[in-house]
Amino acid sequence: MTAISATAKTTHTRFRRVLIKVSGEALMGDKPYGQDLDTIQRIAADLKSVVALGVEVCVVVGGGNIFRGISGAAKGMERASADYMGMLATVLNGLAIQNILEGMGVPTRVLSAIEMQQVCEPYIRRRALRHMEKGRVVIFAGGIGSPYFTTDTTAALRASEMQCDALMKGTQVDGVYDADPKKNPNATRFEHLTYHDVLSKDLKVMDAAAISLARENHIPILVFSIHEPGNCVRIINGEGKFTTISDIRN
Ligand code: UDP
Question: Is residue 6 pLDDT above 80, yes or no?
Fold first, then answer.
């Protein structure tokens, strides 16, 4: 097992620092619920390859594989309490990714927006930056720490706070389509969209709050399939299939 040194390396890629959004759903594999360790292992191997490029990496992890506030609310729970349960679910996923990455020799820190000092560090922006400078993968858990938000909005917020060069949004398919490609074989993939396109066409890639935040802070969003091994590095190198969402349409 090759350990990755905890000192920052020089990078020759187009990005110095990226935020990778890993949804809870991505961690389920073929299971209907919960964590599939083989799948997490594969995603962790991809994250390790990005670190090996010398790129600073932070991750926002979702919780939809375990609990979604909105589903709890639909069954009669108070929405805010249900959302807190969802936020706690993201911590379970953060710890699983941490464990597997560290088993691969990648130094990590989990920083939670909801304090739980026996389990992980609290979110402190400057500390997160320092960890990344030292070559550690920072895993943001607990969403933004408030109900009524999503981990997509968290990803846009943390990417802005961390001054990331890109927000890489891992999804089930290889980009943004004009219809659901799993249901409609004629769906076409967009190569490039503006933030305004996504909002005005109401494309279901990230919620409007996340897109607006990324737009205000000029963070390009790269939407790619998290299920293809090696994709993170490929996309950082501008190769493979993905959709770019930014200020300008190329
Ligand atoms: N959540 C929240 N505030 C946040 C982030 C998440 O209340 O800032 C809750 C919300 O209930 C959400 C759940 O945590 O349904 C899991 O997050 P999300 O649905 O974004 O996960 P993903 O879809 O990425 O798996």
Answer: no
